[in-house]
Design goal:
Length: about 350
């Protein structure tokens, strides 16, 4: 018996050394190599690309870096929209990017008129400013639509958020945006470098979620993002910022190795936020998609299918050209229906 056991042990060791024990190797790769290398851009669907580019460049100081018009079978399978023709503009602010997409065909639905900041289709980008008072005056001069009552300073008792000043407003299609001023002891040090610009760059995109632990399993455990900070925010300042009476939020910030962060907003109260519409499509104006860069799109797709993530794309798609700046990609939904695009350059 001892000779047989020793022989089996030796055989197992030999198989491991030769690489013939497949169930061990993927587990090691999953644990040691993050699926996502960077958060590249935050995208949103708009009704009139020219109007939106005009707003983001003239009011918020973005720079347009590219524009492409695409159609065809590959893009239909990528976006999950049959018969599409879309215009896509890439804009830059500081070192960060957004992408604006207009569907020339088929046209999608507008954002629901009664949308609130605790509905789970909510997403915004947080734009950093060095002077909130000056930024608010500038936005008022350009007649932006308020989503907050005005700039709010989060109270000092909140250790992780105290001293931050913030204001929510809307773009021409009703997408939420935020301007954010960090105090000297918070935020990335790059936001404290001397600068002449009023709008410096994008710190993060925020998404409303139902359950922090479920979202961590997707973004941290599957995609490989790291938790960078947490806080629990409530009180009159938070209520007026979000324009939600009785708002109490659990906030979790995540980061990849590069690019803006992704921030979870879980409303502990009120719990009456509505879920993402089951029939939401990429041409609807409520649609956002955050582009994440992966080293290999095919491997990322396999891992996400193993994790049972719902796919928007029919498969990993390789568009015929590089008009949109990547070689392969696909769209997939997180546990609340927010769309992320996995792209391989």
């Amino acid at each position: 018996m001892r000779k047989r056991t020793a022989g089996m042990t030796a055989l197992l060791l030999l198989l491991l050394l030769l690489g013939f024990w497949p169930q061990h190797r993927p587990l090691l790769a999953t644990a040691s190599v993050p699926l996502i290398e960077a958060v590249d851009s935050i995208g949103m669907t708009v009704s009139d690309l020219d109007r939106s580019v005009d707003f983001y460049t003239k009011v918020l100081s973005f720079q347009k870096v590219s524009e492409a018009e695409v159609t065809g079978d590959d893009y239909e399978h990528l976006q999950g929209v049959f018969g599409l023709r879309m215009r896509v503009a890439r804009l830059k602010l500081g070192a960060e990017f957004i992408e604006l997409t207009e569907y020339l065909a088929p046209r999608g639905r507008p954002i629901p008129a009664d949308s609130r900041s605790n509905d789970r289709w909510f997403q915004h980008v947080a734009i950093i400013v060095p002077d909130m008072d000056r930024a608010y005056q500038w936005l008022r001069r350009h007649k932006v639509e308020h989503a907050s009552t005005g700039p709010q300073r989060l109270p000092d008792w909140n250790k992780n958020a105290g001293g931050i000043r913030a204001f929510y407003f809307r773009d021409p299609d009703g997408h939420h945006l935020e301007v954010l001023e960090f105090p000297s002891d918070k935020g990335d040090p790059k936001w404290r470098r001397p600068a002449d610009q009023l709008f410096l760059g994008i710190d993060h995109t925020a998404i409303v979620i139902a359950d922090t632990e479920a979202s961590l399993k997707f973004y941290r455990d599957v995609l490989g993002l790291r938790v960078a900070g947490e806080s629990e925010n409530y009180g009159p300042e938070q209520e007026r910022l979000n324009n939600v009476f009785g708002a109490r939020l659990r906030i979790t910030a995540l980061r990849a190795a590069a690019g803006p962060g992704i921030e979870f907003l879980e409303y502990l109260a009120p719990r009456d936020g509505r879920p993402m519409p089951a029939d939401e499509r990429a041409n609807d104006l409520v649609h956002w998609q955050t582009q994440l860069i992966a080293g290999e799109a095919g491997a990322a797709g396999r891992r996400l299918r193993q994790a049972r993530a719902p796919f928007v794309s029919s498969s990993v798609v390789e568009p015929p050209g590089r008009e949109l700046g990547y070689r392969k990609g696909f769209l997939v939904r997180d546990p609340d229906g927010h769309v992320v695009q996995i792209a391989e350059r």
